[in-house]
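check this one:
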Amino acid sequence: MYYYDAANGSIIWRHTASGTADVGRGMAGDIDPRFPGMEVWSFSGLYNAPANRLTEPNTSLRPWPQLGLWWDGDITMELLNDGKFEKWDPNNPKPTNGLARLLTTSDHGAVDASQDVQPTFYGDILGDWREEAVYTNASHNQLIIFTTDHPTSTRLYTLAHNPAYRNAMTLKGYMQSHHVDYFLGAGMTRPPRPNITYSGS
């Protein structure tokens, strides 16, 4: 893993393991509100990115680095892996599959798609600022769309109105977590109004 300055490409910090050829997965998102900014992780521990500090000393208790999404009413990120919507609790860390479960898609007839652990699609497509996850049934003749029923007092413009997020929803190849071009997490400031116009206006 490495963290670099996008303005000039200089490495701020990096973590390497001897003999590692391909880490496989990695994630960035604010899942621990005790530390400012995002956390980053793959398989060697959960780090706070700005501080380059382990937020959980026991590196085996980091969550699985599959996908992150905004689902419940707070502004920290939830986790989505193999049809399981999970919530990281920094005060009660658990290993993968031991986290608090918010939803299990297979309970509603949904099956995983790409890599046998991913939804068919996910993103903010119905408004609000939380994200929907789209699956199919086992016969592949129905779409099953999961949308949150958690209330929230946070008011943001829809994530799909953010150009970086909208672009991320269309990326091909391995499905990765979508991000906006501002910090969305605990302690965030109000994001700037998106500079977009509608065709013909």
